[in-house]
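Running low. Invent one:
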Amino acid sequence: MKKKAMHETVFENVGLGDLNPILTGNERCAPSHSFGPAIRGYFLLHYVMGGKGIFYKNGKPYPVKAGEAFLILPDEITAYTADSQDPWQYAWIGFDGALAEKFKTLPPVFPLPVGLLQEIFGEQYKDATQVYELTAVLFRLYAYLFSESKEENRYVKRVEDYIHALYMQSIRVEDIAAGLNLDRRYLSRLFKAQKGVSILEYLISVRMKEAARLLERGATVKEASCLCGYGDVSNFSKMFKRKYGVSPCFWRKERGKAPLSLHNEEKENEEGKDK
């Protein structure tokens, strides 16, 4: 069993207004080592350098692996546990300041580049008087995280475009992520953080809106189901009722402009041209 090795440095609090370092540290955890529940009055960012574990936020578990960071917000009760077989080694930095509020927009777990983290958690910052040097690195971290917002918005827009173009086909989140060359979990977190719903929930919403439109045009339930990517009419009906509170049959009857299938509607249009 690996021994737990921990080092922590508490910095002189010079009260910097924008980004103010409080402490840094690192630890090689023993298998199943846990910390918390705990609460803090500052932001605390952990970066996993090796191994893996679970981060608990509001009682919900978030798996975290090497190359990813998890973020603890002020006055938030959290806990975390190292994996029993591959326990993590992580480093952390605590900070506050006016610009730190921007960190609240980040998901609980997200990837970070190794090079940047080596700057923050390097040996040169074990001296508690080096607060200004560490502050400069904190600003580089801030710039990296939040100058990426335009790129992240582009990823979210591309997911939306993909779904609107192909909602009638079989769509998997894995396929969308692969098309964008992104990790599936990262893309899912990014999308939900910006849109407030998961990619799957967004897909279902798009399908149901189109299904409602088709039913109003006179499509049969089976046709609407097929045209919106559902091979199983029963599952389609269940999802439609969950979305709108009524069955697709009732929706078609109450809102349909004419009790016609799309095939009959097309036939009628053709006949009209011949007259």
